[in-house]
Design a protein that fits this description.
The protein is mainly alpha-helical and about 200 residues long. It has one domain. The protein is about 75% helix and about 5% strand. The protein has 8 helices and 2 strands, in the order αββααααααα. The protein has a two-stranded antiparallel sheet. Helix 2 runs antiparallel to helix 3, helix 4 packs parallel to helix 6 and helix 6 runs antiparallel to helix 7. The longest helix is centred in the middle third of the chain and has 25 residues. The radius of gyration is 17 Å and the shape is globular. About 40% of the residues are buried.
């Protein structure tokens, strides 16, 4: 069965695109569409697409990104709960909000710490050929996922940065359909930012 998923559906610039990658792309686009509209069904879609991308990235020796997908799948359960039952510290319903200045500093600081730590781990303990570039979207996505789960509008800015770096990384690995997906994610992140800004 696994061989079926990794069977090439077509080839782009000499790199095979598998049925698994096609399915993961479709689900990921549906997920972002739900996130933009603040529809909670995006979270279960995130779980399934993340598990698919775990297999795809692991096969491509993008270990940081593959492990990140497992994290996404687990955290998606938390995000799903947050969007259904989450509350602000004052007890109000979870709605779109902006980070406070200390919150913004904490988010940037977390990215600055997580990137080198993740990169050093990948360089030391894996055979990846792109430890630092694999580490960047891995580390920064952790922050983005938390901000998305708590409906902070700044999550879209984080995803724009992550997606720009990811486009280059996946192009290097020849994952061309995923390159197109992440390029679309850049545009969708701008759309999401504008949509959430209107609901503030």
């Amino acid at each position: 069965m696994a061989d079926l998923f990794f069977t090439p559906a077509f080839t782009v610039w000499g790199s095979p695109t598998t049925w698994l990658e096609i399915a993961a792309v479709v689900l990921a686009l549906a997920m972002v569409g739900c996130n933009i509209r603040q529809v909670h069904w995006g979270w279960p879609l995130a779980i399934v697409s993340s598990l698919m991308y775990f297999a795809l990235f692991w096969r491509s020796r993008l270990y940081g990104d593959s492990v990140l997908q497992v994290f996404f799948a687990v955290v998606a359960f938390w995000g799903w709960f947050q969007w259904l039952r989450g509350r602000r510290p004052d007890g109000s319903n979870l709605k779109v909000a902006r980070l406070t200045r200390p919150g913004l500093i904490a988010a940037v600081g977390a990215c600055a710490v997580l990137w080198p730590v993740t990169g050093l781990f990948l360089k030391t303990y894996t055979d990846t050929d792109v430890p630092w570039w694999d580490a960047f979207p891995t580390a920064v996505s952790l922050v983005g996922q938390f901000l998305l789960g708590r409906k902070y509008i700044e999550n879209w800015a984080v995803w724009i940065v992550v997606n720009v770096v990811s486009v280059g990384l996946f192009a290097y690995k020849g994952l061309w359909l995923t390159v197109a997906l992440y390029a679309a994610f850049i545009a969708l992140s701008v759309v999401g930012w504008r949509a959430w800004k209107k609901s503030l």
